[in-house]
Amino acid sequence: MEGENIFSDLYKELDEVSTFFRFNRKEKAGSIKIKLESCEKKIQLIPKIEQSLSELGAKNSGLIREHHALNVEHSLLSQQHETLGSTHKEVTTKYDLVSNILSAKNNDNEAMHAFDSFVENDFLEFANQENSLAEEAKAVLMLQNVQRELLMISSFPGIYNKNIVAVGGGFSSGKSEFISSFFLDKTIKLPIGIKPVTAIPTYISNGDNHLIKGYSYKGGSVNISPELYAELSHDFIKSFSFNLKDIVPMMAIETEIKNYNDICFIDTPGYNPSNTGTTGGDHQTAVEYLENANVLLWVIGLDASDGAVPASDIEFLEDLMLVADKRLFVVANKADLKSPSELEEILDNFEDMLEEANISYCGISAYNSIGKKELSFRKKSLLFFLQEIDSPISAKEKITSELDKVFNMYNEAISEQLKWTKNIQSDLKSLELDFMQDGMDIYESDRASNRLEKIRQAFGTDSLKKQLGQLESLRSTMLLLVNGVFKSL
Predict the structure, then answer these.
(1) Staple partner for 485: which of 92, 111, 157, 364, CB 3.0–4.6 Å?
(2) What is the mean pLDDT of the chain?
(3) Where exactly are the structural domains of the chain?
(4) Could you tell me if 356 and 312 are in contact, meaning their C-beta atoms sit under 8 angstroms apart?
(5) Which of 426, 85, 98 is nearest to 243 (CA)?
(6) How far apart are the first and last CA of the chain?
(7) At 271, is the pLDDT very low, low, confident or very high (cuts 50, 70, 90)?
(8) Closest C-alpha among 165, 194, 169 to residue 182
């Protein structure tokens, strides 16, 4: 009975399981059928989906092309924006510079104004009336140099009584880099480049103020930032519709210069002729500043040299030393580009060429401006030479001496004219006596007498004697005015 009950219970369980399975199978089958029907509908949509995908792909390709075109346009616009920004900055810089220069307060030194007024009026009036001096243009230029020198001293006392050392040479010889090698403060540096850079002559002297000033044609001054000063190249100046140097003829820098307290360097434009990229104005400016300096450092870049002093340098120095007797020291710059043996040969060549040209010099130095190091020298070391000239001078005596040269030129010319005129008068007197000895009285003829009188008047000495008196008066007054300028300092 017990076994039958077990089987009975098992069958019941099997039946329940079977029933449950059959019920769930039907339910699952229904669910599967619904899903199959849904799949069939989705399968029917596949062609449409594929078509939509194809259309979307085409649209995507178009958008990609448009995106690329927009990127190109954006790049061009960015470049244009950058160019416009740069142009705007340059125009603003130019406007600010010119505006500041034109609005700069004039030099308020009354003694300097009195000197300028005397030169521009009294002296030039005399010069226009006087016609004995053949080199009058040179004399007037010398006086204008004195005027500029006095203006610089009264406006920038930092150079007062300092030994003026002009640094000259061809463009790209490394003049600015050479001077900068003595600066302790690296925030101030003279502009350098492979193209002509130095355009406006710049006075550089030792001091603690670390400033750059531009001086206007009216005697006023404005502060110049190191960033702006670095842009004052030939190309920048030529971009103006006028000559910027007409309103900013000179500049000055005060910065710490190691070991040299009483030297004032002048960075001058390259003297080279126009086929090297400089201008005739640069040549004339270089001559004026080099002539008026006390000492000349002549820089030759060994990167462009064939181991010899350029022929144009020799010619320029010959002409300069004839009219301006001064101490000359030659710097063979960029010496790090040559081997020690090459340097020795180059210095030998320099010595031979200078001596052959009869150009007197104190020494020759092979110098590395970037490394701030002298590699070799002849006669005298550059550093020793600079220490030797690092002593104050009397600016007043120098100015007075230069004025004396100008007045002596006029005095000699007028005196020579007076001497020649007196000789003519003496010859006329002798001619009268000769006629009288021959029994001819020329005064019996009104015609002859009148002509003789006209000749006497044409060769009269009164006006020349008067000019000599005026000249001496002008000299005395001008020296008094110079004293006034120095007293005002």
Answers:
(1) 111
(2) 80
(3) 162-393, 401-488
(4) no
(5) 98
(6) 144
(7) confident
(8) 165
CA dist., res. 302 & res. 307, Å (int):
7
Per-residue pLDDT at 48 exceeds 60: yes
Contacts 24+ apart (CB under 8 A), 113-117: 114/481, 114/484, 115/147, 115/150, 115/478, 115/481, 115/482, 115/484, 115/485, 116/147, 116/151, 116/219
Position 155 pLDDT exceeds 70: yes
For residues 394 and 161, give the distance between their C-alpha atoms in angstroms, rounded to a whole number.
Answer: 5
Residue 274: pLDDT band with limits 50, 70, 90: very low
The contacts of residue 363 (CB under 8 Å, 6+ apart) are 329, 330, 377, 378, 379, 380, 381, 382, 385
Q: Which of 27-31, 38-42, 134-138, 253-257 has the lowest mean pLDDT?
A: 27-31
- Of the candidate CATH numbers 3.30.365.10, 3.30.710.10, 3.40.50.300, 3.30.9.10, the domain formed by 162-393 belongs to 3.40.50.300
Q: What is the pTM of this model?
A: 0.69
Kindly list the distances between the CA atom of residue 99 and the CA atoms of 1, 105, 163, 362, 383, in Å, as whole numbers in the listed order. Answer: 128, 12, 33, 45, 42
**Looking at the predicted structure, is the pLDDT value of residue 315 above 60?**
yes
What does the pLDDT read at residue 2?
Answer: 44
For the residues 122-134, what does the mean pLDDT come to?
87
pLDDT class for 481, splitting at 50, 70, 90? very high
DSSP-assigned beta bridge partners for residue 377: 365
CB 364 within 8 A of CB 343: no
